[in-house]
């Protein structure tokens, strides 16, 4: 984006919250940008459940809006097919594990559509195309320490797990 902005003489402002759980911080950044007279807004929402206010404001002000990596219904989106990514991960895992192996999912944030869709694709592929057994699922914010603890706890409770989709 920065290179394209330079090539087209566009002033680009890039802002990021502290982490993927900081939706309040991100919402304040977006509000400040909207009040500052921007011409367009590109956002990777950290929480799809807390977007209504700034989406409505951008639309009311006629500010073009698109999202990256996180889909919001009715808003143009640039990103991956996250459901398909989950399916591909399950297919790859199934090709590497023995029949009837136990697997688990550490799903990431339930506030991000990418995580929700990847988990759904993984689950659906396992159920429809493999004999792998899904024995544990944990969803948590995407903070390294917390995810590490969740993984350790999952493996402690289910020592037979041979594959973990994170």
Descriptive overview:
With 166 residues, the chain is an alpha/beta fold. It has 2 domains: 2-78, Response regulator (Rossmann fold, 3-Layer(aba) Sandwich), CATH 3.40.50; 82-165, Response regulator (Rossmann fold, 3-Layer(aba) Sandwich). The chain is 45% helix and 15% strand. It is built from 6 helices and 6 strands. The strands form 2 sheets. The protein has a 3-stranded parallel beta sheet with strand order 1-2-3. Helix 5 links the parallel strand 4 and strand 5. Helix 4 crosses helix 5. The protein is elongated and about 55 Å long. The two termini are 28 Å apart. The mean pLDDT is 91.
| Shape field | elongated
Q: Total number of helical segments?
A: 6
Level-2 CATH architecture of the largest domain: 3-Layer(aba) Sandwich
Overall mean pLDDT score? 91
CATH-assigned fold name of the largest domain: Rossmann fold
| SSE series | HHEHEEHEHEHE
CATH H-level superfamily title of the largest domain: Response regulator
Strand content: 15-25%
Order of strands side by side in the largest beta sheet?
A: 1-2-3
Give the tally of β-strands. Answer: 6
Largest sheet: 3 strands, parallel
- Spans with pLDDT under 50 lasting ≥5 residues? none
Our count of domains comes out at 2
Q: Tell me roughly what share of residues is in helical segments.
A: 40-55%
Helix and strand content put the structural class at alpha/beta
Cα-based radius of gyration, to the nearest Å = 19 Å
Instruction: Give the C-level CATH assignment of the largest domain.
Output: Alpha Beta
